[in-house]
Specification:
Two copies of one chain form a homodimer.
Chain A: H1 34-84, H2 100-113, H3 118-124, H4 136-143, H5 145-148, H6 156-159, E1 162-169, E2 177-184, E3 194-202, E4 217-222, E5 236-244, E6 251-259, H7 280-300, H8 304-309, H9 311-316, H10 318-325, H11 329-336, H12 341-344, E7 356-357
Antiparallel strand pairs in A: 1-2, 2-3, 3-4, 5-6
Helix pairs in contact in A: 10-11
Chain lengths: 360, 360
């Protein structure tokens, strides 16, 4: 590798002995001799066939994911039981040694800081035994930027009743999709035991642009009707408006129901327009929604406990932190921003390949 | 979605009624009541089991990739035959309609610019019929930044003899790996018909850090011995050095063989140190090498023609271009650099999941 050779002076493609072209302009087939161009077209036809084989590959991967979802499920069921307090894990099931050093370090740290405040702190620490792991999912929602952006204060007491989030894959032979199921315990807000959001996917190269195919993509989603108790719907708010009568000049106050920011708007998404004609805002909201659905499926549900403890957030930022330790904070910090946790879930950056390369 | 709620004022996790902590500090289990912490440890054990199931999943995906490699192979064989000129595709095989508009546009453009220079240009354009697609792989090497950084001027005449690049997957039951095979036609530089680079992979959570597991990763690589013809080895150069005899003061010229920048150093990589102790430069070089291996496997080999025509490069930069059309070129251009083709292959950004979400 020649470290001295920058991108600026890179040689440009020069096929068929043509003159070089300025940086940034993609090489165009049309400058090739006719006979060569013809052969390039033959390769493009082959490439198109590859895209269709690739689509079949991803369908099989989806099947494999369905198969493995069944293998994960007993572990996720156990997780739910521990979280809700339905089951108390045995001592053996709770053995966890690898972070002892960490805990000792932390204990040391706490000891150092806790001088005078010691007695006071002890008072505050709730040493009682609550049921299960209180606020398990709410804590996750509040820890992950992408979700905490959606969660409003009025959503929090409702999310305390969230018992589990599950991902269900479409059956074989059905159009490809996955469903997020949000399981709630009985609560004073709505009657539904489960709120659902279905994400419809497509694993098929588009005839008009077969080469952009990179694997299944979310193409649409569908929420569900929430059966709110009277006056408990946090997705709307009542505003009072003063109206002046044009003729008489009398003033009266009218109440009007308007949309309200809430996580629960997640279950009432914008509809994807079939002809692709949408205003920019709706497009942005829908793209964000797809990203969030993808994030629930790929990260939150499979590794919830790590988002609860913060370890998954640390992992996502590990580069940044490693570099920070070495010195020049500000510069590295800026670079690190590209690799942050939300960046990791940017679906545009994602590759459908199951391999990554990392140095041991 | 609340657009007004920035990341700055996001609520922090506050499990068990503890005080909020400053942004950036991950939530620590140790502040939880003992009984709850115990249950969190139970969840972490379950999570560890998930990582091992996930490892099996990726092994099955690898098998699936092997299966599909066999399905792609006839198409890649055909590609090689067309590229080398061994086979002339039929008219039907060369039909390619979708870019007609594009070509017409281009033809218009060319017509506009070509006024006086017309006759001159005609002369230069080689309308002869070369064999196959000349410089197919060399053009790709020179078009892709990650590769063009490695290719030196003295490598180019050698790379003109590259006929094909193939990816071979390890057999079932063998340790997971893939091999890049660079097939050369007989040439005046070396005797090897095939140069190989093996990338060894691991799909197994590390006992010390099971939660960082994200799928198979490259852990080591191995090159091959190139049997250079005498005086043709471009990976070394002879330098002349004048030496002065300490006592007598006479000067003599000695020749010394030193390493030389060359793409062919790719076949003589740094060895990964088994204990992880390496100097920074070697670590960087190895990480770059793994990235390049991964890029050959995932992008170059499966879609070579699109790198030849530049379409894959365009795809990688599509955001940039869309934005460029709207006006402020310079600013957008800079931003686009983060999304460029090399960024897409940054293995740290890659997710092992086969799904991406994109708006229709």
């Amino acid at each position: 590798m020649d470290a001295n050779k920058g991108k600026g002076d890179q040689a440009m493609p020069n096929p068929g002995g043509q003159m070089g072209k300025p940086v940034g302009v993609p090489f165009m087939e049309s400058v090739l001799p006719k006979a060569v161009k013809r052969r390039v077209h033959a390769l493009k036809r082959l490439q198109e066939q590859c895209a269709h084989i690739e689509a079949k590959f991803y369908e099989e991967v989806h099947e494999l994911e369905r198969k493995y979802a069944a293998l994960y499920q007993p572990l996720f069921d156990k997780r739910r039981e521990v979280v809700t307090g339905a089951v108390e894990p045995t001592d053996e099931e709770c053995e966890w040694h690898t972070d002892e050093d960490e805990e000792e370090e932390l204990a040391e740290e706490v000891k150092e800081k806790a001088t005078i405040e010691d007695a006071k702190k002890e008072e505050v620490t709730p040493e009682e035994d609550p049921k299960g792991i209180p606020d398990f999912w709410l804590t996750i929602f509040k820890s992950v930027d992408m979700l905490s952006d959606m969660v409003q204060e009025h959503d929090e007491p409702i999310l305390k009743h969230l018992r589990d989030i599950q991902v269900k894959f479409s059956e074989p032979g059905q159009p490809m999709s996955f469903t997020l199921e949000f399981h709630f315990e009985p609560n004073g807000y709505f009657n539904n035991a489960v709120l659902t959001k279905v994400y419809k996917m497509k694993s098929e190269p588009e005839a008009s642009d077969p080469f952009s195919f990179e694997g299944p993509e979310i193409i649409d989603c569908e929420g569900c009707q929430i059966d709110w108790h009277k006056g408990k719907d946090v997705t709307v708010k009542i505003i009072k408006k003063k109206q002046k009568h044009k003729g008489r000049g009398t003033v009266r106050t009218v109440t009007k129901q308007v949309p309200n920011d809430s996580f629960f708007n997640f279950f009432n998404p914008v509809k994807a327009s079939p002809d692709g004609e949408m205003d920019e805002d709706s497009e942005f909201n829908l793209a964000t929604d797809f990203e969030i659905g993808h994030f629930f499926r790929e990260r939150i549900v499979p590794r919830a406990v790590l988002y609860f403890t913060g370890e998954a957030l640390e992992d996502d930022e590990s580069f940044e932190e490693e570099e920070l330790e070495e010195g020049d904070e500000e510069e590295q910090d800026e670079e690190g921003d590209d690799d942050d946790e939300e960046g990791d879930t940017d679906p545009k950056k994602e590759q459908p390949q199951p391999a990554e390369c990392k140095q041991q």
